[in-house]
Design a protein that fits this description.
Layout lengths: L1 E4 L5 H13 L3 E6 L4 E6 L6 H5 L4 E5 L19 E3 L2 E3 L5 E5 L6 H13 L4 E3 L17 H14 L2 E5 L6 H7 L2 E4 L7 H10 L3 E4 L6 H13 L5 E5 L17 H8 L4 E3 L1 H5 L2 H13 L4 E5 L17 H14 L11 H14 L8 E4 L5 H10 L5 E4 L2 H9 L5 E8 L3 E2 L1 H9 L3 E9 L3 E4 L10 E4 L1 H6 L1 H5 L5 E4 L3 H11 L4 E5 L1 H6 L3 E4 L9 E8 L11 E6 L6 H11 L4 E9 L2 E11 L9 H10 L2 E7 L1
Parallel strand pairs: 7-8, 7-14, 8-9, 9-10, 10-11, 11-12, 12-13, 13-14, 15-16, 15-17, 21-22, 21-23
Antiparallel strand pairs: 1-3, 1-4, 2-3, 5-6, 17-18, 17-25, 19-25, 20-23, 20-24, 26-28, 26-29, 27-28
Helix pairs in contact: 3-4, 6-7, 10-11, 20-21
The chain binds phosphoenolpyruvate and manganese (II) ion.
Length: about 625
């Protein structure tokens, strides 16, 4: 049941309610909302619900309509996140788990782990106890396999996931692994579910071969009812009459599960299809359908794999898949990072080195709900302190003077081009670009609850946003456009002014934060509206190879000077992904060139190219490799 508490409830009244519920054997969850606070209580209560309704401080009692309770969104309206070390499943980042079906040897596991990590996997999978259809098939290395998994973690820094097939293995699992998987064949092994519930480690619960979504959720309920909320659901295909694939991937399960439960859901395209060439398209589709992550089988030598070779990707195929996911993720408001683990490590080292724990860490322009804020959360997660600034210069100043470890600033937008102010600041300040993040920007017309588009007379937003929504705004020529510092500020202003004839243009998140309503969704002229942000820091990112670099340079004012620099890239096979010129202040008609390359210019191999470039330029500054 859900107990909605009265607005003016005292702490004493609340403590009393909680005590009664506990005495009645309930598991309790408190949900603090903007409008009201509620207590979710789950257990086999024998009293009439009216008893609870009459307790002082209770406004009303609502029975939970579903057969599953703790996993239901009714009791936990927001998405829950499962944390495994630095990895967060259920946030804005697509989490990819990769590795072989089974651990076969130390060499095999480490080789695959290093490869999948390089391509962006953040967790390693590998079975040590394999539930095989035939008793004569390879059954896994047992405890030796778990020891190898622990070595993989030591070697790569990746947390490891493996299947538990019996409660007898619990102690061993506690010793060696980070996430325990309950396989499809054991989804309704209730003893095992209770056991992993008591273990407390994050659980990856796979949907049974012939299980309904409701049965999957009931199985998750077993785990949560033992006090373990760290459950990740996994759709891995179900048995149907179709025989061209091993199973049938039920992609509809993703939005259905997302609606019913707060738990994260990932997809296993490998067991779902059973065929290597079908894995990539289904993995792409899963991300597009809203999955929080993927678990994919990858093998260094699939032809010789001891299990599930035909469905295991070659490492180079996995790399291609990751590049596709990198592109797809922003379309659904998410992100994939090829070097997330290195970055997370770097950020921790950076914070520890400066003894800054608990102080301001990341700065951006705007306020909560703005796209700058979203970029911070997507890049750094929610455990880092994020602090708003009132100008881009303030962002640069804060980082330069050590008041923040990182800043995030937009550099370019696909509809409106470069944000020149930040290019100029990059030249002026002595800071490094250490990362980048691309967000899809969806704009919405937002007003007071109940407002109608017909009555709008005045609209607030950032001037760039008006440009991005030009076609929509041209249909409403009579509207007065008022510029604001950022999108989220415009929503706050409209709210404070309480005028139903006013609206703002901003993200859905900004509307949510301020309790306002989206009255028209997706009003940007072109849906391919992306903004690229860069992360700036005083320190360089030292971990791992970089994929991209940004440079600024000027050349002499002689014929072919720019061409000579570009020739260096062409002749060395370096891909140029951006070239832009900006006037040099105080030198009319002279220009600086801003260049992005697909190369690590700080790597030893690049030094010869860099020397050559230095000879052909008058001024050269490396903004960073990331
Ligand atoms: C596995 O992940 O290796 C596995 C056996 O999966 P499932 O339980 O989904 O068949
Ligand atoms: Mn397998």
């Amino acid at each position: 049941m859900i107990l909605v508490l009265k607005k003016g409830i005292t702490q004493k009244e609340k403590d009393y309610i909680v005590r009664i519920l506990k005495e009645d054997g309930c598991i309790i969850r408190e949900i603090v909302g903007v409008e009201e606070t509620v207590l979710g209580a789950v257990g086999r209560v024998s009293r009439d619900l009216r008893f609870y309704e009459l307790l002082p401080g209770v406004a009303r009692v609502i029975p939970i309509s579903k057969s599953y309770k703790l996993v239901s969104r009714e009791i936990h309206p927001h998405n829950s996140q499962v944390k495994i070390g630095d990895v967060v499943v259920g946030g804005d980042r697509i989490v990819v788990i990769a590795g072989p079906c089974a651990v076969e040897s130390r060499e095999q596991a480490i080789e695959i782990a290093r490869k999948v990590r390089r391509y962006g996997a953040v967790l390693f999978r590998g079975g040590a106890f394999k539930p095989r259809t035939s008793p004569y098939s390879f059954q896994g290395l047992g405890e030796e396999g778990l020891r190898i998994l622990a070595e993989v973690r030591e070697d790569t820094g990746m947390a490891v996931v493996t299947e538990i097939t019996s409660p007898n293995q619990a102690d061993m699992m506690m010793k060696y692994v980070d996430v325990v998987q309950v396989g499809a064949r054991n989804m309704q092994n209730f003893e095992l579910l209770r056991c992993v519930g008591r273990m407390g480690k994050p659980v990856l619960l796979k949907r049974g071969l012939a299980a309904t979504i409701e049965e999957l959720l009931m199985s998750a309920e077993y785990i949560l009812s033992e006090g373990n909320d760290n459950v990740i659901l996994c759709e891995r295909g179900i048995r149907t009459f179709e025989r061209y694939t091993r199973n049938t991937l039920d992609l509809t399960a993703i939005p259905v599960i997302k609606k019913l439960t707060h738990l994260p859901v990932i997809v296993d395209p490998s067991h779902a299809t059973g065929i290597r060439e079908k894995v990539i398209p289904m993995a792409r589709a899963a991300v597009a359908a809203g999955a929080d992550g993927l678990i994919v089988e990858v093998h260094n030598d699939p032809e010789k794999a001891l299990s599930d070779g035909p469905q295991s990707l070659y490492p180079h195929q996995f790399e291609r898949l990751m590049r596709d996911i990198y592109v797809i993720a922003p379309v659904v408001g998410k992100q994939l990072d090829f070097s997330y683990l290195d970055k997370a490590l770097f950020i921790k080292q950076e914070i520890v080195a400066r003894g800054e724990v608990g102080q301001k860490k990341v700065v951006f322009l705007g306020e909560p709900g703005s796209f700058g804020h979203k970029a911070c959360i997507q890049y750094f997660g929610e455990s880092v302190e994020i602090s708003p600034m009132s100008s881009f210069r303030e962002v640069f100043d804060a980082v330069q003077h050590g008041n923040a470890s990182f800043g995030i600033v937009p550099l370019e937008n696909t509809l409106t081009g470069s944000i020149h102010e930040n290019y100029d600041l990059l030249l002026e300040y002595d800071l490094n670009i250490v990362g980048e993040i691309t967000l899809r920007v969806v704009h919405n017309l937002i007003s007071h609850p109940g407002s109608r588009i017909e009555s709008i007379k005045r609209v607030f937003s950032h001037p760039q946003v008006f440009q991005q929504c030009r076609e929509f705004l041209e249909r409403h020529k009579e509207w007065e456009l008022v510029s604001a510092r950022d999108t989220a500020t415009s929503v706050r202003r409209v709210k404070e002014r309480r005028n139903p004839e006013e609206a703002a243009i901003a993200s859905k998140k900004a509307a949510e934060i301020h309790g306002m309503e989206v009255i028209k969704e997706g009003i940007e002229t072109n849906p391919r509206n992306y903004t690229r942000f860069v992360v700036i820091s005083r320190q360089k990112l030292t971990n791992g190879p970089a994929r991209k670099s940004s440079l600024i340079y000027s050349t002499s004012d002689t014929p072919g000077a720019l061409y000579k620099t570009l020739r260096i890239f062409a002749e060395n096979g370096v891909n140029l992904v951006k070239l832009e010129s900006r006037p040099i202040h105080g030198k009319p008609w002279e220009y600086m060139f801003y260049v992005d390359l697909e190369a690590d210019v700080e790597s030893p191999e690049f030094q010869k190219i860099l020397d050559e470039l230095r000879r052909k330029t008058e001024y050269l500054k490396i903004l960073g490799s990331y």
